[in-house]
Amino acid sequence: MKKEEYDPITLEIIQSSLQATADEMFASIRKTAMSSIIYEVLDMGTGIMDAEGEIASSGAGIPAFIGVLDKSVKVILKKFNQPGDIQEGDVFMTNDPYYGGVTHLNDIVVAMPVFSDGKLIAWTADIAHNSDVGGMAPGSLTGDATEIFQEGIRLPAIKAISQGKTIQSVMDILIVNSRMPDTIYGDVWAQIAAVRIGTKRLQELAKKYGADVFEKAMVEFMDFGEKASRVELSKLPKGVFELSEEQDDGSVYNVKITIGDDRFTVDLTDNPEQLSSPVNTTRDGVMVAAQMIFKSLTDPYSPCNGGSFRPIELITKPGTVFEAQEPAPLGFYYEVELRVYDIMWRCLAKLSLIHI
């Protein structure tokens, strides 16, 4: 299909197919995973990224997990940046929050590049909580950890499958470091199967409509996401809103949100230094919280994509609980993210800015 033959109906069909693919990936993991935390609790997420790692379509799962996947893929792209580093059939993994993992070591991200006629056109990715990835305590979560090395094995954005062939040494290292080797092996392969299914579906789409039309559909939908967000942002009351709140340990969390005509700025610079306990998070993790707030305020009912979040500006300070630096432990990152998510909401809610 030539460029001049682009039509909105075809682009919409492709976008709907991307959503269906992400949902199929989710169903695949749910049916094949070994851990009950995955197949019953559904502690997982799936998504499709464009060639640059921007969210093109999100599947089912925990919203905070969906916001992880683009960040993980971008780290992989940055690390494997030489010709030939990324090939058809490759599969990458990361669980390290300091290397694109975003959350904590229990959550393994699996990502696969999608090629059409030798050209990288997209990525499929998923994330799931694994029951034990090693570390000083069963389950890999303990309040006694003082550094990330105690929380489990670290996968710093690595290649696990090369051109369709498993790098068995990587799998061996992962398995031998878990107290539940059969379970983690089964769960990881469930994730790999899901990204492979997603890749197959996207390649079928690119073959049917043409890679150029496939890529155009993602660009158009992300531009639409940005436009929708900016239209709703323009309707919000403008100003600077602040909230400070004491935490259980006596520290004080501070948030300042500035709503402008074309920018939604979250400033978290004035906050406590990172802790030697595992109650810290990464900047990427805080960005996920900001994205969820922004999406809820602007266009909560449409699918999210990279364009939806372009108006967000996040300001954090390295070395604080909201932008922890190595080797700070991060096992209970979600406690921090829930707190910052909460104070962002109430910073705005008390001023009657929340309109459902």
Description of the structure:
With 356 residues, the chain is α+β, with helices and mostly antiparallel strands. It contains 8 helices and 11 strands. The strands form 2 sheets. It has a 7-stranded antiparallel sheet with strand order 2-1-5-4-3-6-7, sandwiched between helices. A 4-stranded mixed sheet has the order 8-9-10-11, covered by helices on one side. Strand 6 and strand 7 form a beta hairpin. The radius of gyration is 20 Å and the shape is globular. The model has no long low-confidence stretch (mean pLDDT 94).
The gyration radius over C-alpha positions equals 20 Å
Straight-line N-to-C gap: 42 Å
Strand segment tally: 11
Q: Strand percentage, roughly? A: 15-25%
* Strand/helix succession: HHEEHEEEEEHHHEEEHEH
**Biggest β-sheet strands, sense, barrel:** 7 strands, antiparallel
Fraction of helical residues: 25-40%
Morphology call: globular
Structural class: alpha+beta
Q: What does the average pLDDT come to?
A: 94
Low-confidence stretches: none
Q: Which strand order does the major sheet show? A: 2-1-5-4-3-6-7
Task: List strands and helices in order, with pairings.
Layout: H1 8-32, H2 36-39, E1 44-50, E2 55-61, H3 63-79, E3 91-94, E4 107-116, E5 119-129, E6 158-162, E7 165-166, H4 168-176, H5 181-209, H6 211-233, E8 239-246, E9 252-259, E10 264-267, H7 283-298, E11 312-315, H8 333-349
Parallel strand pairs: 10-11
Antiparallel strand pairs: 1-2, 1-5, 3-4, 3-6, 4-5, 6-7, 8-9, 9-10
